[in-house]
């Protein structure tokens, strides 16, 4: 196993290729542009298709087209560009097309800045587009995990025929870390989409259509009920979370993505000072790992949510735990990244509060 | 007071003009196209500006430009077109620009159909765009209330310097109802935006800029903290709800917008059959009228949420009431509109359940 | 009569307004941007419509729309942007719509530079777009004449229902000169387009259509024959040229637009040195003033064509004069503007040649 | 040699591939869409790049990009779409980039119809774009010649570093005819563009630029003088014409492209009736085969120009022959295709006139 020192954005690109994704459509925006550049260089080497679209709106619609043909397709952007893709993501969901969309999030709202942020949580987990749909959202916290979750994103997309969001941020996109690609000698087996994909009739079968249009209200309701069943199945089967120090924790800190790294350091530091605190790190943001929170927080009376945003995951935490559990929040915004000491201080302060109760 | 029989989409247009909005930028999409057509005809008569943009993305950015000059500006669309505006809405929020954006919602996800739906609730209330922002969301349930809430939308936009969403649907947009415009003899007094709007320096003051860009992380965090204070202030001051039969209700049905009309009929019918049920109708969806729910549901153990969607407002209801209150859901999707009998049946069924408890 | 000191680009704008043109659609490009800026400022003052389009292609199509409604409409650009309008100009010609399109020409081909040039002569006079059409082309050589020819352009457009090109260049566009506007106290009388323009049926007449589509070959041939008759009529009626020193000239220099100013100085200088040379200045480039050339050159055996291009008007001169007349050429290119001495030298050199013959 | 029965549009595509063109960027428009479709199918098989652009403007700019990298690139359209490419063609000319642009011409001006026409002659031969440039224009009259001239177009493009136009029409594009591809066993040798193309520095040479921008007037004039030298060289070296019955013809008919087929039939018919008429068929429209006309018409006093347009090639014929030669014209327009009898009648009528002189 060779260790490679790579930039996070490039890791996503290579992981996608190794997951069998040879169709990428993108548009540059800092801090994700290295991913576009990586695909521009690598995909022609693999006989794949890289296309720089004329806009973010075009890119997501090109993904729609490629996905309709049954191939693994990806696009990526950063927050403002990701907002432009919301109509397209809703179309992918409505047409039940597998695809992976990467958001290397930055500070907002608006043009904001190019520093890392987690403020696109609601947009990712509630469907920033229109209509009753959800998309699985995976949030890695190391570059090695980025490799795994990129592959996992394609697996979920294929198995459930759904767009999947890989939600990372400017910190993970720009940092370098040694990674190992578990290159298998055999090509990746992707789901066979032979039963619906538009690959030509070959003159031997009836034409198919892939569409999100359904003018008849009862027809659309039927389709939507089927979608909701799928979402329920995903919710039951695909919740993912990592838990640290659960065995003896009196209460928990919770954080995802890059800030979970910092939070983990802070938790370890606090434990070395005798605070019996644990960490819950949701890996899938949708489906939110409700069960993990519910069971772990049954006997605790406090949870500290740490975000690089104004407090968005709070809602999901509150909806997961009993209302007797006090939900405390610490957040930084606008591209400001908390350091371990800051979070440590907040833990210590709340540890006293927890003790008092 | 003359009563006029008008179509819902036209009512919004006339109400906007009477609220002092003379700048409209739109793009046609069923079932909101009559609003665009109405403005195309009326605004030139008033010396205003109507512009059919080349796309929904262009329209919202034209609103950004007009709003920067301190004038009341509006755009409108229906669900897919509304998704295309998410980047622009985030920019308006980031630059703290007043504007009103109308969503005459239709069935989704994707292209869906042109029947009425409420499935854009998350998108509207959580910010379908990127970054930490909220927009006030107002949801009328009659055409007369549409007039009032259109004016209220502009008031909120101006007072708080924020984009505001008027969330209606194809049912309210296409129906006709007699309405009365309370035409004042004096022109509407809009907020003076003299202290920030880009209206030319006249050679006597320093140039200004209106932007959502703030490259410095601490600068952006400061701006975002100011935004969050504003959102907290709105949350405290601007919750709106209508409550029916609160005085003797043992439990509540809750619904908003067009389906609240049907729910109210069903509630009245149920009461005539001896069921002591009331109705909570949120008028502002963000800020969600949490206090109304909290206080009214203190002594009840059940609430029935009725939506023309898969169950989105449920989250807000759960976050508002004590976890001992059982939240029951009834929804139709994909443009299917429930009739009073259906809802009545669900009320009756749950009334028995409520009784048992 | 007040003399105003104005920039050439602004003169065109004001002249258009005084000619009753209240609809302008543009896109900025050096060296014509002051015209767009002038219209942006002036048209709202006049209750007119200024619209900055999203591209040059959009601007010419907006002109198509406005012209269909029977109002005087204008767009402008400089060479590369003018090329983008070729499809639209062909559509205007095909649909027989009156409109004025300004080209403040710059150095080319390609991006070239922003210096003045006359190298768009073929494009203007032969129809850079597709199909059998011509457009009248007027080329002023002073700012005062710019006022007159702008009005004349609108007159031709209306009388013949045709797009008309005002061909000027970066020199005339950027220079300042005192001008007088002969403001009439009564508004300009434009042609009544009541018999074809799309101004609403008012419920009392049948709908009309304005289109360049004619799928039937014999129908399109018929339409084209009608167009050709119109072109023949324009050719017979609207040739315009200015002639200097015709009474005693043994031979002629010919030049149009800004370089004709310089050529005129050079001719005067040569005459003061005893050279009996005259100047033919075509004012209309299409129709080319063939008759003027033919009659004046009957007894001469030489003509010197001076252009700020590689020699394009040469073809029209050759097609106008007897083949016994020798056509000599002097040109500068790429934004290089000849000075009077240069042209004087060429005249002297050729005067000797003329003498020898 | 296998004979293949193919459609004209497809023949162009296959001929381009066999000429070593593996990069095609297009946009569909009748009557050339089969060419786009053919490339979409064939190029991936050859490891080439087919890209359907978002517009005609985009397609020509993609050609600009590909050509900058030194590869053989092509785009195609029909009249209205070809007009949209005029800016891009001017850029290719200015940057001296080799490329082939196909116009399968249809009836115009404007939207016109989808029948064959030759009315884009001026646009093709005079540069419909801005600036002092010409492009070689080749006009085949059979599908077999289409193969040869497609290869020739790429040769000219490469040798002279210039865009080249293949001008055909809806008749030749839609007809089927047996053709033979002279497939060589070795790959086509294209010009080596190693000295200017943008193929990466490989870290061993200085970066290059390919541009049509030259802000300095004397710099641009120098570049333009170099261009004019090139055009003169092409004019001297690359005139192509086919002549029929020159040995004993008293006078000539002249026609190009599809209508030359019909004219040839009519000429043969006339000869069988004792009329000593010949046919001059220009193969290159620019450079126009002036020398052929000049020498052949030295002793004749009449030439009949036949076009499927209003009379555009007339100018070039007049500029080529002595003014004592009478130029007679017969044309059809708007998609109307003359039949041999019509042309025969015109020949007979003019033969009498010719006899009288």
Automatic annotation (TrEMBL), chains A, B, C, D:
Domain Pyruvate flavodoxin/ferredoxin oxidoreductase pyrimidine binding: from-to ranges: 14-185
GO molecular function: oxidoreductase activity
UniProt KW Oxidoreductase keyword: yes
Record keywords: Oxidoreductase
Domain of life per record: Bacteria
Record flagged with keyword Oxidoreductase: yes
Entry-linked InterPro entries: 2-oxoacid_oxidoreductase, PFOR_II, Pyrv_Fd/Flavodoxin_OxRdtase_N, THDP-binding, Transketo_C/PFOR_II
Domain Pyruvate:ferredoxin oxidoreductase core: start-end pairs: 249-343
Protein name: 2-oxoglutarate ferredoxin oxidoreductase subunit alpha
The species this protein was found in: Salisediminibacterium halotolerans
């Amino acid at each position: 196993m060779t260790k490679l020192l790579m930039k996070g954005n490039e890791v996503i690109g290579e992981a996608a290729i190794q997951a069998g994704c040879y169709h990428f459509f993108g548009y540059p925006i800092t801090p994700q542009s290295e991913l576009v550049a990586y695909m521009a260089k690598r995909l022609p080497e693999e006989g794949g298709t890289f296309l720089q679209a004329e806009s973010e709106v075009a890119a997501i619609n090109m993904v729609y087209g490629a996905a309709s043909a049954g191939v693994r397709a990806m696009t990526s952007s950063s927050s403002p560009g990701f907002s432009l893709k919301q109509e397209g993501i809703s179309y992918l969901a409505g047409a039940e097309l597998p695809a992976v969309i990467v958001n290397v999030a930055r500070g907002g709202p608006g043009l904001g800045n190019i520093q890392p942020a987690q403020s696109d949580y609601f947009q990712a987990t509630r469907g920033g587009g229109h209509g009753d749909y959800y998309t699985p959202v995976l949030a890695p916290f190391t570059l090695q995990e980025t490799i795994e979750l990129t592959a996992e994103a394609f697996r979920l997309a294929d198995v459930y025929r759904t767009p999947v969001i890989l939600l990372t941020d400017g910190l993970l996109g720009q940092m370098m870390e040694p990674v190992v690609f578990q290159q298998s000698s055999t090509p990746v087996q992707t789901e066979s989409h032979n039963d619906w994909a538009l690959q030509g009739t070959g003159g031997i079968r009836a034409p198919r259509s892939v569409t999100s249009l359904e003018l008849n209200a009862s027809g659309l309701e039927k389709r939507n009920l089927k979608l909701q069943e799928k979402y329920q199945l995903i919710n039951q089967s695909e919740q993912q979370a990592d838990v640290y120090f659960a065995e003896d924790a009196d209460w928990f800190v919770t954080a995802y993505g890059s800030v979970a790294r910092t939070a983990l350091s802070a938790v370890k530091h606090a434990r070395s000072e005798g605070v019996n605190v644990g960490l819950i790190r949701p890996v899938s943001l949708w489906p939110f790992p409700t069960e993990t929170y519910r069971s772990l927080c049954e006997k605790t009376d406090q949870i500290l949510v740490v975000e690089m945003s104004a407090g968005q995951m709070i809602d999901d935490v509150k909806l997961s735990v009993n209302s007797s559990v006090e939900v405390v929040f610490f957040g930084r915004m606008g591209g400001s990244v908390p350091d371990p000491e800051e979070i440590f201080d907040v833990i210590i302060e709340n540890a006293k509060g927890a003790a008092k109760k």
